Amino acid sequence: MLLGRTTLSKFLIEQLRGTEDQADLAALLVDVTAAIKTIASMTAKGALGGYLGSLGTENVQGETQKKLDVLSNDAVIQSCEWGGLVAGMASEELDEPYQLPRAFERGAYLLVFDPLDGSSNIDVNVSVGTIFSVLRFGRLGEPTVTDFLRPGVEQVAAGYAIYGPSTMMVLTVGKGTHGFTLDREIGNFILTHPDLRIAEDTGEFAINASNERFWEPPVQRYVAECKAGRTGDRGRDFNMRWIASMVADVHRILMRGGIFMYPKDTKEPAKPGRLRLLYEANPIAFVVEQAGGVASTGRGRILDLQPESLHQRVPVMLGARHEIERLERYHREYDSGSDKPFASPLFKDRSLYSAEGRA
Ligand code: F6P
Ligand code: MN
């Protein structure tokens, strides 16, 4: 059935009709979509397009840049810089905000993005994604770094694309979270997953378990209880998944539930978490909250954080409401000292949490 479908542009025009963002935000998101189609085409061609491999350069995070990281970054910039819709852009791949060429008109928005998330997966043909966040730029002149340091609650739109067996785009403009699938023959994103909801309960969690010894005790406690399964305090079995691409892990959670954690760890003590606040945690948190999920650092709502720097990192725990609330409680109990016995080497021999911890 090719007739009667809702394209992304039609959907956005309808969602934004009557709001102050009605014309320009839809147009900007359509420009972002153009970049996503280009990236989808490059990731799909893989080795045939000569796109695989590293460039031998590093980004500001000290991560090796892949060819596709840089090409994807260029795709977003080229699609969005010319239209008079953005005043500035910031990216995981750029140390400083991108300066728009003088020739282009300035617009009312700031675009922040991770052009290719999970890029260690590129060369092995596993799902990767693009994450984006749109903020308002409420003044004249050129944006500085400070203009980008806005809390996530101020985002006017956010979302991601996943380049998997099919390419999908999932986004929110603050009226629910909706999924679109790319019809490659026609070149349009079609609304296929309206009003996505994350179930409040789950039996599935995602975490890089090789970091277990570096986690804080409340996260160790939570995961230990999940792993103990039906013989432990939770009284039921849990399943674990880890794709090493946040977009792909979060997408699974939006499709069938679960939680995702990249907590703070002591592996690299200078870094309070792995994921970046402005272009990873905030946009994904907005999408997750709009789908009824919770997105937390373990000690508070991600969207309320006041960013301090462009590439700031944060602990991330998100997904099923009841499980994230449980993790927040474990952090509170740890911080107040009321779970001290768990930190003791004796805890394994004692059933300390059975009274209130059973699911
Ligand atoms: O962008 C950071 C990222 O690639 C995420 O997409 C992913 O969840 C995580 O890092 C993978 O981390 P690790 O290498 O520890 O598995
Ligand atoms: Mn990333």
Summarize the structure.
With 359 residues, the chain is α+β, with helices and mostly antiparallel strands.
Topology of this protein?
Blueprint: H1 8-16, H2 24-45, E1 54-58, E2 64-66, H3 67-80, E3 86-91, E4 109-117, E5 128-136, H4 145-148, E6 157-163, E7 167-172, E8 178-183, E9 188-193, E10 204-206, H5 217-228, E11 239-240, H6 246-256, E12 259-262, E13 275-276, H7 277-290, E14 294-296, E15 313-314, E16 316-319, H8 321-336, H9 340-343, H10 354-357
Parallel strand pairs: 3-4, 10-11, 10-12
Antiparallel strand pairs: 1-2, 4-5, 5-6, 6-7, 7-8, 8-9, 12-16, 13-15, 14-16
Helix pairs in contact: 1-2, 2-3, 5-8
Bound molecules: 6-O-phosphono-beta-D-fructofuranose and manganese (II) ion (MN).
Manganese (II) ion binds next to strand 4.
Description:
The chain has helices at residues 8-16, 24-45, 67-80, 145-148, 217-228, 246-256, 277-290, 321-336, 340-343, 354-357; strands at residues 54-58, 64-66, 86-91, 109-117, 128-136, 157-163, 167-172, 178-183, 188-193, 204-206, 239-240, 259-262, 275-276, 294-296, 313-314, 316-319. It is built from ten helices and 16 strands. The protein has a seven-stranded mixed β-sheet with strand order 3-4-5-6-7-8-9, with helices on both faces. It has a five-stranded mixed β-sheet with strand order 11-10-12-16-14, sandwiched between helices. It has 359 residues and is of the alpha+beta class. Helices cover 31% and strands 21% of the residues. A hairpin with a 5-residue loop joins strand 7 (167-172) and strand 8 (178-183). The protein has two domains: 8-193, Fructose-1,6-Bisphosphatase, Chain A, domain 1; 204-344, D-Maltodextrin-Binding Protein, domain 2, CATH 3.40.190. Helix 1 runs antiparallel to helix 2, helix 2 runs antiparallel to helix 3 and helix 5 (217-228) packs across helix 8 (321-336). The structure holds 6-O-phosphono-beta-D-fructofuranose (F6P) and manganese (II) ion. Manganese (II) ion binds at residues 92, 114, 117, 280.
